[in-house]
Amino acid sequence: MIRATFVIARRDIIATILSRGFLVWLAMPVIGLAFAVFASIVGGPRAPATASQTVAVIDPAGDFAPWMQAVAARERTRNAYERLRTSNKDTGAFARPAALLTDAELDALAKREDIGAIAALGAQSFTAVSAEADPKAQAHRLLLARNSRFGAALVVMPDALLLFTGDKAPAAERIRTLAGLAWTKRALAAEGLAARVEAVRAAQPDVSVTVLDEGAAPAGRKGAPILATGAATVLFALISLLAGALLSNMVEEKSNKIIEVLVAAVPVPAIYAGKLIAMLAVSLIGVAVWGLLFGGGFMLAAAQLPAGLLPTPPRGWLELLALGLAYFTCAYLIYGAIYLGVGSLCSTIREVQTLSMPVTILQMVILISTLGALANPGGFWYEIVSWFPLSAAYMMLGRAAAGTELGVHLASIAWQLAFAALVIAFAARLFRYGVLRSGPPPSLRQLAGLKPKAV
């Protein structure tokens, strides 16, 4: 039995890998990504990136542009500080809310390497332009000129601010907000009140926050929900894509009468187990190739970003990847066994679509339930989704990205493997019924009895 199982597994693995469509199957995600990039390139001309990020400040008086530049620089520092504060575990260095930071604190933070690097990403710059006799006409000319490097123009009048934008202009509301803030700061400085306002802001006491909810996430793990949602969604996409291949595989062999030759040579349970093992191995090969391609590209892109910008798993990437592999195996064994059993009942693509629809709907319900539970950690529903066998792999991988203890994952993996054994045992009987029967599709009564109709 064991020898026959591995013979079938080896046959299917070799036949799949050596087929002409295998390389195309491996390259499909890359082809899809290349097509998306190509479509974005040929979709139409794009303005230079710097054009939409540069704002001309036309100031006849000559004293507003420095205020505008200082306010914009401090707001970039404030935003960079908030992004690091969201994902950083060092709560001591980022304890003060970004909205309460004073100008002196922002100027000091701008000198930090990590905050300065993040603030420089996509920075919107304000460039002082010498005012001409007609500032409004000058703004029109700067924006409408060919290959203009300005996306917007701010004209400073004695008692008003005029904003002119182009087609590729930056966010007008943000420019308006910064211009109003710069106007206020300049007015306070003119009245000699700027120092007093800053002193009042600096004297604001910090509000001590105590979280009493036991199910709340620990401090320093605010980036975990993003990773949790992403991990669960990626695992769902892989299982849906790879496990579904077992359906078409079975239909092809039944239509070519190959399955009848195999049934005459080896036991039916060995065929079932061999096919399940073979498709799991082929799927792991595909996951490894895609992981190297996209994971390598992601690492290269992440290396160009400032440190601390991307959230990291509390227990590290290596452990998360190891748990992801374990949960992928568990989920594939469960869903692969179901798909293989269902595929054995089908003789045509129409029957495949009819019988696989309930499984697909069930998977979508499970994904929605998992994402909902991850968004609201703690509580009875959270635990149900975590231990329900059809959703446990997705949910527990999401919890792994949020930092659940390792012992819980080991218990979950053991439970999923035990359930997979039960599913495989039942699906093997269903598979035996499907490959031995003949005639029209089975009725519910026949499925309940699992007695094959003699050929």
UniProtKB/TrEMBL annotation:
Its main location: membrane. The lineage of its organism: Bacteria, Pseudomonadati, Pseudomonadota, Alphaproteobacteria, Sphingomonadales. Keywords: Membrane, Transmembrane, Transmembrane helix. Residues 226-428 form the ABC-2 type transporter transmembrane domain. It comes from the Bacteria. The keyword Transmembrane applies. It is found in: Membrane. This is ABC-2 type transport system permease protein. InterPro entries: ABC2_TM. It is a multi-pass membrane protein.
